[in-house]
Structure formats: structure tokens, C-alpha cells
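Kindly inspect both lines:
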Amino acid sequence: MSPLKPSRRPRPSGAQTGFLMAVASMSTVQLGSALTVPLFGQLSALGTAGLRLGWAGVLLLILVRPRRRDFTHRDLLACTVLGAATAGMMLFFMLALAHLPLGTASALEFLGPLAVSLYGPGHGRRVWTASAAIGVVLLTEPWHGGLDPLGAGYALAAAACWAAYILLTQRVGDRVTGLKGLAVSMPIAGVLGMLIAAPAVSAHLTWPALWVMLALAALSPVLPFALEFLALRRLTTSAFGTLMSLEPAIAMLIGLLVLGQKPGLAPAVGIAFVVVAGIGATRTGARPTATPATTTLPGAQTCIREAS
């Protein structure tokens, strides 16, 4: 008789792995945002966003070291547009945080991924999108009429940039292996962010603040954006957009723990709706496995599904 082989634990599916990566990404994004808010008085919202983007670009260039021969002209163009969307997403969101609570700003920004999820296939997707939409309404409580119009405008601009970021990240991630695409797009975002933020930080920047922003850049956006980049290899854009419904709930929790921003009853119920939507999106959101005959895109290099 042949010896019994030790049983192996089943590996997580692509959707489950993408779910874990997305949750870790959202948590670090919101923690980084909450820790940045106290610096607004010294560096301003634009200054903190620009410095985080600038440091993130430097860190990714050092860690990944992308090479020109790894990119086609189309790849570089896509990375450039992705960098612009990334810069807009962070700059507008930081401006929104100067006017709105963390949970409210995150809920409004989530309208971008929600719009992406509306274009997903299947009736089930619509159910999870509807659940997420109800949760967003409960989180923002529009019937109170207390939203700061300027802050809401900034949050909605961040939402539009986030929607573009999701679509572009998956496109770049499928055309360029590893994190090389992110290592090109983030320095572009950093240059744009620093150009816009330079007037706000030039007179108030100190060495301690500079090193604090380096640490915050490593926490967010370097770590979460890398996780999102990998998660979008395992999830459809519509599933990823719906899964991002968890972010307002995470933001509200971190806002409570770090900034002392207490939610009311309606936002608490909204958390339940977005959590249900996130779970539903995960169960139905794995991307189909590509076969060798279909992995080459016109004008692009072979797409490699890395499990890194």
C-alpha cells in the first residue's frame, strides 16, 4: 500500500484572494488618511497629498526599478493617464477631508466605483450594487442637509478620478507584468501632485514633517495601491467597484477610533448594507482564467497572471 499523502488545505480562490487584498488596501488607505488630517494645519490638505504622492513615486521607483524596454508606447500612455487619475483622486480626497468627516467623504468618493459596478453583467450584480447604493445613502444622510457643498464637490471629483483609476489600473495591470506599471504611474502622479502642492508647502515644510510624510506615503498610497493593482488581476472591474463599498464602513470605523468622529444610527445601518454588498460581490466576482490562446492583446505583450 502506498503511504497516505498528507492532506493539503485548499488554496483560496482568485476572488477570495482579491477580496483580502482589497480589504487590506482599504484599511491602510483610510488609516493613512486619518493620520494625515492632523497635519492639515501645518501643510494644508493639498500639501499633505502632494508630499505623499511625491514620496510614493520615489519609493516605487527605488523598489521596482521599471525599465523602458518593458513598456510599449501604448503602455506608457496608459501609465501616464493612470498617474493623472491617481493624482486627482488623492488631491481631491484630501481637499474633501478638510471639509467633511472621513466616513462621509469616503462614502461620496465611493460613488465612482459604484458607477463602474453598474456596468457589470448579470442580475446578481445589480442586487449587490443596489444594496451598496442604499448603504451610501444611509451613510451620507442627505435628508439632514448638512453636507458642506465645497467638500461634497471635492469628494465627487475624487469619485470620478477613482472610477477612471479602477478602469485604467486593470488595463495597465493586464498589459504590464508585476508592479512595473504602478512604478511608472505613481512617479507621474507624484510630479503632478508636487507641482500643484508646491505653493502650499514651500513656506511651512520642516524636516520632521518631511519624514513623517515619508512614513505615511509608505502606509498609503504605496502599500494599498500595490494591493489594489494585484487585486484587480483577480476581480472584474464591476466586482471590484462593488467591493469598494466596504471602504465607507472602514473609513467610519477608523474615523471613530483615530479622529473621534462618532456615527449615528442611520450610518450604522448603512454599514450593514455595504458589508452585504461587499460579500456578495466577492462570491461572484472572480475574473475568468485566461487561456494561452487568448492572453495576448493586440499591440501588447503577453499578459501573465502572477500570484505574487
Summary: The mean pLDDT is 79.
